[in-house]
């Protein structure tokens, strides 16, 4: 029986989406893209899901595009890779960045090509110590896509971004943490335990506040200080009206843990 390319599980207020083509290192074909798009949309739509965790089955996280798929194979017939990006990868990266809930990636093994940049599109990236990140694009004559040319220089600076993109070398999870590319590298055996603990923490948190933290931090990449101060004022004005703000302040004053509802 063929395995579904995406596994979806919801529990304790968060969803886990698992890329599930382990024999191809979870590389993307069209069906996996379609199923992932549906799973991300479900996680966004459901109010009982307040955080999203992305991971991979088997020994890899994701090896990017499946290079043996007919629609992208570089044979005699010209293929429009731009079509693949505008149909699949670009909407996927946008949907994660615009998700009004925290998105975590648990990078369980190698993350290469668009798979590396999918991992980096998450708000918080955890990686197993044995995992690695490879901007493999230059090895096949392409530019980093899936947001790579945006994420890498912003997270690392131009020198390191350029080195990774031009050389396509493997960056270990430990170096990724040291360089500030990811949040944290953890022992392999602890990865999912730590990732789930974080997802549970986010699921019990002030969801609207988290959504606006994402908005503000990501907007800062292109905003002036002036615009950013205005944005903070506008977001704070709205958040000050939420039940979670009221609960957070009451809980603080009453010296107890807050019970956030996400409203
Ligand atoms: C694969 C793949 C793979 C198919 C491993 N495809 N089979 C967007 C728009 C349109 C078109 C172009 O692309 C894009 C975005 C992109 O993502 S471009 C970049 C595509 N990805 C790559 O170039 C990475 C290719 N893979 C690798 O460099 C290595 O496999 C890595 C570094 C990921 C892992 O190396 P190893 O741990 O040594 O594993 P392996 O190479 O032995 O792979 C295991 C199997 O998975 C193997 O199959 P086999 O039948 O021999 O066991 C590979 O052929 C298969 N595989 N990546 N992208």
TL;DR of this structure?
The protein has 263 residues and is of the alpha/beta class. It has helices at 30-45, 81-97, 114-120, 148-156, 158-167, 173-179, 191-203, 207-219, 225-239, 243-253, and strands at residues 6-11, 14-19, 51-56, 60-62, 103-107, 110-112, 124-128, 132-134, 170-172, 184-186.
Shape: globular
Order of adjacent strands in the largest pleated sheet? 1-2-3-5-7-10
Heterogens: ligand LHQ
Secondary structure category: alpha/beta
> How far apart are the termini?
43 Å
Count of helix runs = 10
Number of strands: 10
Share of helical residues:
40-55%
Summarize the structure in words:
The chain is an alpha/beta fold and 263 residues long. 45% of the residues lie in helices and 16% in strands. The protein has ten helices and ten strands. The strands form two sheets. Strands 1-2-3-5-7-10 form a six-stranded mixed beta sheet, sandwiched between helices. Strands 4-6-8-9 form a four-stranded mixed beta sheet. Strand 2, helix 1 and strand 3 form a beta-alpha-beta unit. Helix 4 packs across helix 5 (158-167). Bound molecules: ligand LHQ. Ligand LHQ binds next to helix 2 and strand 6.
Topology, pairings included?
Blueprint: E1 6-11, E2 14-19, H1 30-45, E3 51-56, E4 60-62, H2 81-97, E5 103-107, E6 110-112, H3 114-120, E7 124-128, E8 132-134, H4 148-156, H5 158-167, E9 170-172, H6 173-179, E10 184-186, H7 191-203, H8 207-219, H9 225-239, H10 243-253
Parallel strand pairs: 2-3, 3-5, 4-6, 5-7, 6-8, 7-10
Antiparallel strand pairs: 1-2, 8-9
The structure holds ligand LHQ.
Ligand LHQ is lined by residues 24-25, 27, 63-68, 72, 81, 84-85, 89, 110, 112-114, 134, 136-137, 140, 142, 145.
